[in-house]
Amino acid sequence: MVLMGLKGLRHVRVEKGAMPGITQVTMGELPLLEELPFGVENLRQLQEMELWSMNSNLTNNLRNAADTEEGGEENRKIARVPQVTIGYLQDGVWECHKLSRETSCQVKKESLPKIQM
Fold first, then answer.
1. How many degrees, rounded to 5, is the angle at CA 22 between CA 16 and CA 24?
2. What are 1-33's pLDDT values in tens digits?
3. What is the value of pTM for the model shown?
4. What are the strands of the beta sheet with 2-4, ordered from one edge?
5. How far apart are CA 56 and CA 48, in angstroms?
6. Which end of the chain is less packed: N or C, by CB atoms within 10 Å?
């Protein structure tokens, strides 16, 4: 599932039993989305989530909570997802972090989302 460039999107809900085979979610350029989709934990087959150029409050909360034992509400929603990547532009260069280990990751230029500036 890909949600990109929906600048007015504020909320997303995933109903229980919806999209049972989905393995990857990519979201980007959703500046008003301040929390992960409600019910994202219902995507039982989800293996990878990518968050590109998202609301800074959301990504900061995810990264900061990953460093604590308690985590946080948003981190609990994706606790079962093996790979979560947060990417953002900094000084015109893409930076990304793997949420689970907070390590930098390599970004292949051709795999970056096409975000207009």
1. 120
2. 999 999 999 999 999 999 999 999 999 999 999
3. 0.79
4. 2-4, 24-28, 48-52, 83-90, 93-98, 103-104
5. 20
6. C
Residue 104 — φ and ψ, nearest 5°?
A: -70, 155
CA 44, CA 56: separation in Å to the nearest integer? Answer: 27
Residues 90 and 37: their CA atoms lie apart, in Å, by 25
Q: Report H helices in 1-117.
A: 56-66, 73-77
Cα–Cα distance between 25 and 117 in angstroms, integer?
23
Whether 39 and 73 have beta carbons less than 8 Å apart is answered as no
Structure tokens at 30: 């959703």
Reading the block at residue 33, the tokens are: 């989305």
Which residue in this structure is represented by tokens 């093996």?
A: 82
Q: What is the pLDDT of residues 25-63, one digit of tens each?
A: 999 999 999 999 999 999 999 999 999 999 999 988 888
